[in-house]
Write a structure and sequence with these properties.
The protein is an alpha+beta fold. It contains 3 helices and 11 strands, in the order ββββαβββββαββα. InterPro entries: WWE_dom, WWE_dom_sf, Znf_RanBP2, Znf_RanBP2_sf, Znf_RING/FYVE/PHD.
């Protein structure tokens, strides 16, 4: 007999299917979601975002990566039992994505959280960072060295421009643009709140605010 893998919600202990990235009881985001290079979420109300399950998120990302495709029908994961009921529309220029119920026309905002999103993870040239701010506020390693999250194997590389996760480069004052190790900031924060790309990317996938000052990220 096949046993479907389950995971227990860290908040309410409800057992969920492994495909889920949010608890289906309390909707808390699963902690391992932070390690995924890309996560798609939908908005049930103005104060909340809920990740799509793994299969649906993969399906959306595949369509998003095709610049000729501005609309796709959801058919995987949860939507496998509700085929044709929902579509996702992509306006890449405006960074505006919506899910539309094909029957009622109801629209819900959709967003993409990704390690490669340079509109949220804004690259900061190393030369502009003073010595007083040369520490990643999350992993506490120097910004001119590699993220300790990657060194400990806790993060998925998920980025073709990144070097090997376990390759240390102490003393190196540059990381390749797009690398998970490069220095970034969030758009709403004052100068001084600097992180390795992968460190803060993981943090905002679980809570969409600056880990230092708590300011909410506006997408």
């Amino acid at each position: 007999m096949n046993i479907t893998p389950k995971w227990s919600c860290e908040s309410c202990t409800f057992l969920n299917n492994d495909n889920e990235l949010a608890c289906t009881m309390c909707f808390r985001t699963r902690s391992i979601a932070r390690e995924l290079p890309i996560q798609w979420e939908w908005q049930p109300n103005t104060e909340q975002w809920i990740p799509y399950d793994k299969a649906a998120s993969t399906e959306i990302e595949t369509a998003f990566q095709n610049p000729q495709q501005n609309k796709m029908t959801l058919t995987q994961g949860y939507f496998a039992t509700h085929p044709g009921e929902s579509e996702v529309l992509f306006d890449r220029a405006a960074r505006s994505f919506v899910q539309v119920n094909t029957g009622s026309g109801r629209r819900r905002a959709v967003r993409r959280l990704a390690n490669d999103d340079n509109s949220v993870l804004i690259r900061v040239p190393r030369a502009t960072i003073g010595t007083d701010h040369n520490i990643c506020a999350i992993c506490q390693n120097r910004l001119d060295e590699t993220s300790l999250l990657l060194d400990s194997g806790e993060a998925s590389s998920g980025n073709s421009g990144d070097s090997s996760p376990n390759e240390k480069s102490p003393g190196s004052h540059q990381h390749q643009e797009g690398s998970l190790h490069e220095s970034v900031r969030l758009p709403q924060c004052a100068p001084g709140h600097y992180f390795h790309r992968v460190c803060v990317a993981q943090a905002i996938k679980l809570k969409d605010q600056c880990p230092m000052c708590g300011k909410k990220i506006v997408y």
